[in-house]
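May I ask for a sample protein chain and its fold as tokens?
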Amino acid sequence: MKKILLIFLLFLMLCPMNLLAEERLNIKVGPSNPVDKEIKLSTKANFQIISSDFSLLNNTNLKELKVTLKNGKVYLKGENFTMENFPLDGSMLINSSKEIKVENLKRSYLGAISFRINNNKLDIINNIDIENYLRGILPKEMSPSFAQEALKAQAVASRSFAISNKNKCIKNGYNLDDTTACQVYRGSSCYNKITDKAVEATKGQVLTYKGKVIEAIFGASSGGYTADAKDVWGGEIVDYLIAKEDPYSTYEWDAILTNQELSKLGLGEIYTIEIADYDSSGRIKNITVTGANGVKNFTGNQFRNKVGSMKCKSTLFEIMNLGDSFSLKGKGFGHGVGMSQYGAQKMAKSDFKYEEILGFYFPGTELKSMEGVNENK
């Protein structure tokens, strides 16, 4: 028995730490905080100061801490407790066995908290394991009212996206932020039993292509035809993010654009709007606008962003001149690349399993456990 124990301990010593620990991410939460703005943290258990390898450095016996940035240094203060020059490189973390509430944001987070300085402002960083991170994403990226198989597909897509993009914000000292630029994340404040179930059911599962975790892009609705990533963002062809017919996602919309709304184009009164060409999915690639102050060419995405992405919900639309305004009749909502969330819901309600949903929207990919994937391939 002792011999077996010694062999096991030797295995632990030789085994790389990243194989023994869960994948953890540093997520910037909330907006950057101006100098001298006080950040208030609270917890129902005592705060601990720990090292990046989770060794205990200081048990504060405090349930409240105040954090300030002055002269480029971070100060922690509590009752009969002060810590000057709290490290900004992630070598120390503020930890608790319970949720940590960031009073300024009115949100709570599992895991630990640290800080970075960017542009002379203080960023709050949540150090969190990926599964609990996903629990704080899923209810914000897909409605808990959706079918469980759709939620499972979203969980795998979100996990894959996080892993493949974990260096997206690394130059700022963290992996990802909590906005739509990465994935919307609101911590434990938004945990939901229904979405938690989908995260747990797919624990550790990611989509791979040729042995690497994929960038599993998703959006609201493809409008009946998914978009090719190269057409939307340029760059190289991505074999699993292609334009293809999508009979499960057929959202349609219409809108009226007045001359006042079109003034954002900077051409004064608008005379004509003409579609110059389309991409491989039928979306508008380029559009020419003629107004009192001249002629301008826009890409479909530029035009959409100028007039408002909530008004012009996609670049898959037709346009008609009504004289004093322009009528848009379109399909889809968002960029159209990758998995359509409403399409995933339609497939789930048609008895497709999450593996089939993912296979449809990310053709040629494989579903694997993170433990079996070498990210450096």
